[in-house]
Specification:
alpha/beta, 333 residues, seven-stranded mixed β-sheet, 2 domains
Length: 333
């Protein structure tokens, strides 16, 4: 069957692979759509640590059940795929925090991925996608990361003044679910196309340069109640702490190799709560699907680009190098 392999940095190939073997407790799924993630672009560019070439990529997936293999599913059921393979026995897994399992592997990153025609996954990693399109179902995983960050931030409640730094797909997910939770949301980004797109989605948005001006200062006041970094920039992650008010929280959603360096006096003066947010759990996937069904997420405006499995080797390098205007590219199998 056809699959897309990243064989080396800057090299993608449409290859033929064997149909995966079905094992007890796992379900066979026909892949219908794949979202191309920032991680996929980093892998293509050779900038993602711990990735071993060659490997089939892809982890933002939707599909239909082919062989339920004795699970509670039926052939033809539409599903969203949770791409996180976990041990189920470590302390985090036992606390229903499998998103940070001690041995977590993400398909398409640490294990063979889903940019292919069929996959097999544990039954517990599949969630019924009733009432949403399969294209939208392929966007649930990245949105769930934003939903998880909001759920992790207990301080966020209706009326909370929230700042999201970075308006790529993950930052937009954070912004949408902060707004759904009732927060007053402000967004900051450096890229002109992202600023324009974020404003068009209804968010008060500033450029990085604008944060030195009076309009931003008026919104900022003495600082925001909750600040979220979704940039993947160590410079931004170190700087965004200073947008918090005393008694606020700072949630790190973006991740990158590098050292966080904060003045202890500023952290203590604010009595600041700093937390990380990683991946998502089933409750977050379900929240995203419910929000899509309710029309709270404008998925048609997020899926800006489309391609077919056969055209990925031609199209993905273009989007990797020139991402202007790209929010989410979705592959149809």
């Amino acid at each position: 069957m056809r699959a897309i392999s990243c064989t080396a940095p800057e090299q993608l190939a449409l290859i033929d692979i064997d149909r995966p073997e079905l094992r007890p407790g796992w379900v066979r799924v026909a892949v219908r759509h794949i979202g191309i993630c920032g991680t996929d672009y980093h892998i293509f560019e050779g900038n993602f640590p711990y990735f071993e070439y060659p490997r089939v990529i892809g982890h933002e997936l939707s599909g239909t059940v082919v062989d339920a293999n004795g699970s509670g599913f039926a052939a033809g059921d539409p599903v969203v795929v949770n791409p996180y393979l976990t041990c189920g026995t470590c302390p985090a897994c036992r606390e229903n925090r499998a998103n940070c399992c001690e041995t977590l592997k993400v398909i398409g990153v640490h294990a063979p991925g889903g940019m292919t025609e069929e996959i097999v996954m544990p039954a517990g990693n599949l969630y019924r996608a009733d009432g949403i399109s399969l294209r939208d179902a392929a966007m649930v995983e990245f949105l769930a990361i934003g939903a998880h960050a909001i759920r992790r931030t207990a301080e966020l409640r209706p009326g909370t003044r929230a700042l999201v730094v970075g308006s790529g797909p993950i930052g937009l997910g954070v912004a949408f679910f902060a707004r759904i939770a009732g927060a007053d949301v402000t967004v900051v980004d450096a890229a002109p196309d992202k600023i324009e797109a974020t404003r068009d989605l209804g968010f008060r948005t500033f450029s990085v340069a604008d944060t030195e001006g009076g309009e931003f200062a008026a919104v900022r006041d003495t600082g925001f109640d909750a600040v979220f970094d979704a940039t993947g920039s160590i410079r931004a992650m170190n700087a965004s702490l200073f947008h918090t008010r005393n008694g606020a929280s700072y949630t790190l959603v973006g991740v990158i190799k590098g050292d966080l360096v904060f003045p202890d006096s500023e952290v203590h003066r604010r009595e600041l709560t700093i937390r990380a947010s990683r991946n998502a759990i089933k409750a977050d996937f379900e929240h995203v699907m419910a929000s899509i069904r309710q029309g709270l997420i404008p998925t048609d405006r997020l899926a800006t680009h489309t391609t077919s499995l056969d055209r990925v080797p031609a199209d993905m390098p273009i989007w990797a190098h020139v991402r202007t205007g790209v929010i989410k590219a979705v592959v149809t199998v």
